[in-house]
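Model it.
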Amino acid sequence: MIVAALVVIVGFAFMLGVSDAPNASASLLAARAAPYPAVMAFSFVMHVVGGFMAGEAVAVTMRGLVNVPAGHLAAVYVAGGVASIGFTLVATRHGVPVSASIALVAGLAGAALLAGGWHAVGWGGLHGFRPYGVIGTLAAIVISPMVGAVAAAGLRRVLARVLRRAARSARRPLSGATWLTAGLVALADGSNDGQKAMGLATALLVATGHLDRFVVPLWVTATVAVVLAAGTAAGGRRIVRTVSSRFYRGDPTDGLAAQSASAVTVLAAAWLGAPVSTSTVVASGMIGVGAAGRRRHVHWPTVRTVVYAWVVTVPASALIGAVLIAFGRVVGASV
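Modeled.
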């Protein structure tokens, strides 16, 4: 069961990469800065670097999501991870950029609730501005896209005023700036999302006596960083197309505003130990710049579809996690 849990955690890292495919690439593709293969290769490299630059604040938050006995932890991680992977896989096959992070938190909560009751879930809340537990994590995941959208819209308006009378030659550096901010988003994403899988793997190794203290081993960091980055390059073409063109087709100024706001939002969340969903922050940033620039050009039916998917993610993933625990009991697993 321990091996199965580690395999599922690594699989979750890959699905995080799949759902994160638009994070560093959507604005570059929307601005036609480079062909798809070049953009995805850039995203892969920067995500790997971000994974190795990860701290442990988010990983510690992930550790406190469930409070089950050590003997049940692997089964809960398997159920929650499979719930997240399954839900995210179905959504991405339909081109809907859902949050694998939301699915994981909900899946773990549903699995822990059935495995150990109400007190088996680390409900948590907020310590000042720092989230902890399931409630604090979900609150951070919900609030961060709003912050990203507002920040992106505000920055888009500022850039529009500054560049309104700029010569065409003065606009050319925007393309390079867009690459810079896209790289920062990938770094932040690889760090924040990578820590989610790193935190679960390390918590499991500590609970089962394979580690003396909660310190992410180098081999865990390397595995998660590479697998997550591979997911961004391997499985996200339809999601990238959704975020880069179906929400709103912008120009380099739009991409710069969206990526800058997203990078700052995700980096601030990582500093606070908030395991936010980078994919929702970036998607909201694209919507924000569209609403600030040419509102009528935003494809609002697509936006509504994605928001509905985010709302459905919590109950659906929690139910799947609980059902998997129940199934494990039927077949005689230790839950």
